Amino acid sequence: MTDESQPPTDNKLTRSKQRWAREGKFLTGKVVRPEAQRLPPGQHLTRDWPVLDLGQSPNISRERWRLDVYGAVDQPIFWTFEQFLAQPQTQFVSDIHCVTTWSRYDNQWNGLATRDLLAACRPREDARFVVLHSHDGYTTNLSLEDFAAEDALLAHSWSGQPLEQEHGGPVRLVVPHLYFWKSAKWLQRIEFLNQDAPGFWEVRGYHNRGDPWAEQRYSGD
To answer: pLDDT at position 55, please?
Structure first.
């Protein structure tokens, strides 16, 4: 197994978001709201789907796409896109909450539920964390519990259409209960670990977990 990804290059968005983390930009205070309320504190609704990335948008065709799942698992996985589609397919409708304060309701996703992926790769008893590796060199970390959320999936379609390149196609992770930077685009590899390994934004001042309802935007939240 080889890692052909290179670390993301420095760019204006990267520098801006690191500055936001230092300055605590977008923090609105810990507003107490009922759990049943749909919009997390500090968020505003949008009908659009804004595009945010590290200045790179890898063009990976479905024919070239591969997914490697490895690390603290009993059954490593090396799937082509065709093999990925041959797995159980699930549809979820969920909301998006971005750390930059926008939210978008009722997104329809199709793909492989993370719980079905876990059943296929069989994490070992010592597995506690997951690191997502993307084709643009991006990484982000999740606890195994968050990765295995009931409505989390590896999505290949949105609103009944193939996931567009700018939004992370052919396949991205979707973990609706966390800020969307945890839902890695252009998914390439999934690594299971017995200890945590903070990813690209997490080592640049962003919160290690990213719960929108607790406004866990930055490391001090």
So the answer is: 75
Amino acid letter, 188: Q
What token pair was written down for 178? 């966390």
Are the beta carbons of 134 and 187 closer than 8 angstroms? yes
In sequence order, what DSSP letters do the residues of 81-131 get, joined into one string?
A: HHHHHTS--EEEEEEEE-TTSEEEEEEEEEEEEHHHHHHHH-B-TT--EEE
**What is the phi/psi pair of residue 134, to 5°?**
-110, 165
Residue 1 near residue 76 (C-beta atoms within 8 A): no
Number of neighbours of residue 129 by Cβ within 10 angstroms: 21
Contacts of 49 (CB under 8 A, 6+ apart): 96, 104, 167
- CB neighbour class for 175 (10 Å; exposed up to 12, middle 13-18, buried from 19): buried
The arithmetic mean of pLDDT across residues 85-108, rounded, is 97
Distance CA 153, CA 84 (A): 12
